[in-house]
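testing teh design pipeline on a random one, pls ignore if ur not involved
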């Protein structure tokens, strides 16, 4: 302001940017909230609202999975993945992958990748695939119990999200496009 009084960035306490795409599954809308990565790590939220709701939805979430007290999601720029058996899986910018119940938001597990994450999770063939800034593709079981199935080193940062077609996962690093076949 001209008088030198600081202007606060946002009136909402906590994260306030929806950067990833919202996802609709069985009448519910899921989305991650965070801030631009230029702000680094920080507070985030994974939210679920009823798709039939209208008007101002403030305070009307079905559930929120908030950062704090050693649980909840940090700042996220990712799109959540939803499994057919009711799991929401979402990555946060600091590298943690979260798995929660789609109906209640109850946490099942968190997996630490040890790297920044710019991409979104992909669920295919009962597996979770996620590329990291350190150039690794982390593969986990898409299940209520955490199981690390493997890590593939691609030797260049991964900023894009993986896609699947014809039983093959395609993922681009900063330098190459890779095809990863589904292995039982």
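output:
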């Amino acid at each position: 302001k001209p008088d030198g009084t600081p202007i606060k960035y946002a009136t909402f306490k906590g994260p306030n940017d929806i950067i990833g795409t919202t996802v609709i599954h069985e009448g519910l809308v899921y989305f991650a909230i965070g801030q631009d990565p230029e702000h680094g790590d920080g507070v985030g939220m994974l939210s679920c609202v009823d798709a039939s709701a209208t008007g101002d939805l403030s305070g009307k979430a079905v559930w929120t999975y908030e950062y704090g007290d050693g649980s909840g999601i940090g700042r996220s720029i990712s799109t959540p993945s939803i499994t057919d058996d009711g799991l929401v899986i979402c990555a946060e910018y600091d590298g943690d992958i979260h798995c929660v119940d789609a109906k209640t938001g109850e946490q099942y597990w968190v997996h630490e990748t040890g790297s920044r994450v710019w991409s979104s999770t992909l669920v295919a063939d009962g597996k979770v695939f996620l590329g990291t800034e350190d150039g690794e593709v982390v593969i986990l079981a898409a299940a209520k119990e955490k199981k690390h199935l493997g890590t593939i080193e691609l030797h260049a940062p991964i900023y894009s999200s993986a896609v699947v077609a014809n039983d093959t996962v395609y993922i681009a690093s900063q330098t190459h496009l890779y095809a990863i076949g589904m292995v039982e």
